[in-house]
Here is the input.
Amino acid sequence: MGGNGPDDRGGRSRRRYAYLGPAGTFTEAALRQIASPQDADFLPQVDVVSAIEAVRTGAADHAVVAIESSVEGSVTAVLDTLATGDPLMLQGEMIVPVSFALATRPGTGLSAVRRVAAHPHAWAQCRRWLQQHLPDAVHVPATSNTAPAAAMASGERELGFDAALVPPPAVDVYGLVPLADDVADNHHAVTRFVLVGRPGPVPPRTGSDKTTLVVHLPSNQAGALLEMLEQFAARGVNLSRIESRPIGDSLGRYSFSIDAEGHVDDERVAEALMGLHRVCPHVRYLGSYPRVDAPHGDVRPGTFDADFVAARSWVRALREGRAH
Amino acid sequence: MGGNGPDDRGGRSRRRYAYLGPAGTFTEAALRQIASPQDADFLPQVDVVSAIEAVRTGAADHAVVAIESSVEGSVTAVLDTLATGDPLMLQGEMIVPVSFALATRPGTGLSAVRRVAAHPHAWAQCRRWLQQHLPDAVHVPATSNTAPAAAMASGERELGFDAALVPPPAVDVYGLVPLADDVADNHHAVTRFVLVGRPGPVPPRTGSDKTTLVVHLPSNQAGALLEMLEQFAARGVNLSRIESRPIGDSLGRYSFSIDAEGHVDDERVAEALMGLHRVCPHVRYLGSYPRVDAPHGDVRPGTFDADFVAARSWVRALREGRAH
Amino acid sequence: MGGNGPDDRGGRSRRRYAYLGPAGTFTEAALRQIASPQDADFLPQVDVVSAIEAVRTGAADHAVVAIESSVEGSVTAVLDTLATGDPLMLQGEMIVPVSFALATRPGTGLSAVRRVAAHPHAWAQCRRWLQQHLPDAVHVPATSNTAPAAAMASGERELGFDAALVPPPAVDVYGLVPLADDVADNHHAVTRFVLVGRPGPVPPRTGSDKTTLVVHLPSNQAGALLEMLEQFAARGVNLSRIESRPIGDSLGRYSFSIDAEGHVDDERVAEALMGLHRVCPHVRYLGSYPRVDAPHGDVRPGTFDADFVAARSWVRALREGRAH
Amino acid sequence: MGGNGPDDRGGRSRRRYAYLGPAGTFTEAALRQIASPQDADFLPQVDVVSAIEAVRTGAADHAVVAIESSVEGSVTAVLDTLATGDPLMLQGEMIVPVSFALATRPGTGLSAVRRVAAHPHAWAQCRRWLQQHLPDAVHVPATSNTAPAAAMASGERELGFDAALVPPPAVDVYGLVPLADDVADNHHAVTRFVLVGRPGPVPPRTGSDKTTLVVHLPSNQAGALLEMLEQFAARGVNLSRIESRPIGDSLGRYSFSIDAEGHVDDERVAEALMGLHRVCPHVRYLGSYPRVDAPHGDVRPGTFDADFVAARSWVRALREGRAH
Here is the structure.
């Protein structure tokens, strides 16, 4: 996984991965699915934008960032940072189940908890549990899911909160006491992460791949969106994600962040990309990579590579007067 | 015009054209637009199917046949004969204005006319005039527009009719007397003819071309027709003619005879053909040739050849990791 | 069947049916499926246009005319006569299997047959048989399938032909001798006929109905045809027939003759008609009537009457502030 | 504006508005566009979800909440809170220009600023300015744009930050010192707010209205999204906003939050709603209200109310046998 060879790393023997740290975050759990701290440098960052920018500046070879939560939806800062600026490429994806523990320092009981530190996404995902068990709790926002755990472990006296919602591994990592396990409202919640790198060779096609794009529409008319979608439909390409984002200069102008089923080396995807390139004012290709989040939909009859190859041969023969 | 070189004619110096004869027909007028009896052999045939079959058997190099009347619509026998059987290719088209004279032998006055010989299409195109001027006239069907003229010229006594609807040139050719000129109900009526040849090199692209196809649908659902048409729409290809024809084995199954604007060497047409080849159970290509019947519609932005070439280069660069 | 009550017939006790005669035609066979000469007046006409016009003038209460052959396609003269002029309404349809006998007068053998009288459609449907068994036969066109039979029966000496292709019942009706039975190339050929009447109450919905329309497009662009078809697709209405016809004033402008599955009393058909009325420059409704030519396609989920009624109630409640 | 009559307020003479407080927020600026503290009760809330829930519980008559930023996109917590739970209705919208001041307590200079308190959205919108002018600044997240201002005004010693990004009005309200004005990266940034109430009468149509919906798709196939959009396109209804949201139980299932141009009392909108109700498993209507964010797109020919009324009359006449 990952398209950068040793030369890309200037002779360094270890790849460097920027991610939303510190230790114990869900992002670290995602990173550990593809790399080990024995063999690679783990470079914690304060936010997802910094993690991505570290790849652009060359401070890291890769970034691992959350792109979509099954509960919260897309991580818009990630989508927007990938959509503009120097080009980057997605090289893989990882899924991490999301649950939370309510943890504190030794000596604090549940009844004493008034102020709860939590990343806003964590707070949102545990809202119902909190309303039931700590209806008077006040939200103290945190910049990451583990920042409050690190603060509690630091021995600092004035924390400004009594307990925190943290990823389960952080309880042990930071020597905390769990007041309650698995407090997320949705027990099937997952977050999808992507591996980001600099442009380079596309990971080889596996037969179950995903291609990520950013597409601007020529106008905000319903017809413009239909015309864009027909470029996929005419080649039988399914979409597993479509997300509108404001273009940023005014309300009412949108770009679309899209995950299409298939690989740029699949004929149907390549031809759909060509169609988008022709009819949309801007298309950014963010890579093709093996998908792990769901099985592929079926490939429709007439849209296998062999169908495209046969069709192209037929038209070539027509042009040369050899067929009809 | 025409793709058959001298070798195709076995060393013969003169091309042979089969057409719906005899002399004086509209078809002959169409043929004279592209060939002269001084330089080519004119081979009159009894019907359009015979003209087309003469090309298949090798008895002729080309056929000239009516394919569409602005009044009567498609000549279905021509569409159906081209759609099945040994492959043929359209190599050009010609437009002939259609008008009729009511003609007879010297000595017959309009008031004496009771039985009027006419090809059924001619009868249909003069119906209103006949109802006004000869309300009691009986239709005596003829196999061509000039067969009654030839019969009158032959001196035969028992014609079975008193006058005939004939193409204006036939009045002189056959030494007849016109009882009324320009009796067609629609004074702008035209018929479109096509030049048919055996498969071979496609006439070069002129920038104002037409491509003729026969396409079978996978089913008779509205969705199947929409899906077929979207293969054109997704590439911005306009249709100048679309005609449904029964497939012949039962009611409710159709093939479509289609004229698309553009040439197989136009990228947008080529890609639409590829799409049809993938999604339709049967596609027959009947050729690309210069159009004469109407100006081209505008080419839509994003569907010029340069747009396709740029899109293809972009996708190729994506696949090679050189673009994004 | 038929919407005209006794008053429409001015007190006459017998309905009058115009049809393509004389006795023994396929059209008469269609007419006999719905009426008997004991109870109704059979009014033979010389052609289909005359049959239809007899309804317009009031000379007949109904007409029975062929509208579509499984081999030859639509009967364009019928489509065009229904599409313009005083409004008429289709009130039913009938299917008749089509086969032909080669028949002659007593005393003529097959080897003596040179000139074969046949309606052009009959000739087309028996072409392959004729090429095999009578390769030198010349076509003598006839105005109907039974006109040559009647001529042979009349005892006339100078027929101008030796044998005729006739409907099987005509052999006995006219006292002829069959030289060969069942000579049609396609043994499953059928012709569909329609019952035409003056505008009036629509036959009640049966659950397996068909609605016939004539629709003009705003332009000849591919998009215009797509937009028209989407009016059907958005309501899940399937088409069992779609036929383009020239509008008649120039090449390249078309109207479409359409059979849609369903009845004007079906909600999905009614709403599709409303959509056509809004987006097309001209729509002519030619009636809804029980279909006999094929089973209905399935009704798509969400397009049953109950779905439309529920949707309308919901929107009404929204407007009144009673729902959300 | 607003559908709740005096009875809804239990005889109270003052309406109660829940909003994201405290004083000085952008939300308060939006609220002041439609109400004054002289005439209404302003009920500040700690977050947008609480503001919306206050309407559901009856603690407030209305809520004013941000729904979309021209820079950050949709406020997903608002979309999701409106999409499920007890029904609510949008009754109006307001636009507020968004800019920020960097403010602090008297006595602090720019060079001393290390830790900057900011709501995450404010931080995101000033990121470039901060990188240029305070490249080493650390983000201290705040729960609202004014919470840090209130903290500085309170005289608290241990703030945990040196300065804050605050709305310009908050500088005066809280007696702060501006270190820099107008520090947002995008000088045309605006935020759109909506007025939320309990279900009731729909605000009257003005001719420039917007209708907000939540729609679930039957599947995640490209075809399902196309089919949904065609329900709008077939009636000529444009969309001014379309946003996908995860349904929450797994990745890959989406609902769409949609703003359509027009009012439920517009025929084209009503019929599109009916179509959605038929083909989508779930549709929630969130109201029709005057739009202020942009001019309407043009109404397409054939989609004015008069066109729908004429079409409906025509079909009714067809059903009654009075038209054709």
Summary: Residues 34 and 229 of chain B are 34 Å apart (CA to CA). The two ends of chain B are 45 Å apart (CA to CA). The longest strand of chain B covers residues 89-97. Residues 1-7 of chain B have pLDDT under 50 and may be disordered.
